[in-house]
Write a structure and sequence with these properties.
Blueprint: H1 2-6, E1 10-12, H2 19-23, H3 30-35, E2 44-45, E3 54-56, H4 58-64, H5 78-89, E4 95-97, H6 121-131, H7 168-173
Parallel strand pairs: 1-4
Antiparallel strand pairs: 1-3, 2-4
Length: 179
């Protein structure tokens, strides 16, 4: 299937049918999605993904995992907020949400109570700059205030099989400045 053929750095499934409105406010195909009952049949390249189901390429996992739990007492959303921030700055063009499938849960009650809410983007960027290892640190830049609503594109790596990258660790290391 798709994951074996394309081998994205990170792939996600949406958690509900409204995910595209929440996460892809600038998406040019948004009107299509809103007016058609069938799901979009192409992967969307986006770093802004729900944490309900994520698959990590083994070489990307060595760079991106484990999730940060430093802010769990303030908000459980922050671990995914930090992941999105890292993906935006490292593998955004190689991260995808697969809109023709959806992750679901058996819970009819929804979520239990837990701390939630987004934390301040500049503070999270400072945290990452203090915490992550050098090749990853070299990619971090302040690109202005961000939220979990990011960029979503159809014309990207996922639509070009000849541009497959199988070693994301090596790709990231090649961006580091040389001594």
């Amino acid at each position: 299937g798709f994951l074996l053929e394309k081998q994205p750095a990170v792939a996600a499934l949406p958690g509900d049918k409204f995910w595209i409105d929440e996460r892809c406010g600038n998406f040019k195909g948004l009107d299509y999605v809103r007016t058609h009952s069938a799901p979009l049949d192409q992967p969307l390249c986006t770093a802004s993904m729900d944490a309900i189901w994520n698959a990590f390429h083994p070489t990307a996992a060595t760079v991106l995992l484990p999730y940060f739990d430093d802010f769990d007492t303030q908000s459980w959303w922050t671990s995914q907020q930090l992941m999105i921030l890292l993906l935006e700055q490292t593998f955004e063009a190689y991260s995808t949400t697969i809109p023709w499938a959806m992750a679901t849960t058996n819970s009819s009650n929804g979520h239990s109570e837990y701390p939630r809410g987004e934390l301040d983007y500049p503070e999270l960027l400072k945290f990452l700059n203090r915490t992550v290892s050098p090749p990853l640190r070299y990619t971090l830049q302040d690109r202005g205030t961000k939220t979990t609503q990011g960029t979503c594109e159809l014309d990207c790596w996922a639509s070009r099989p000849s541009n497959i990258t199988y070693n994301y660790t090596q790709m990231l290391s090649s961006r580091a400045p040389r001594p």
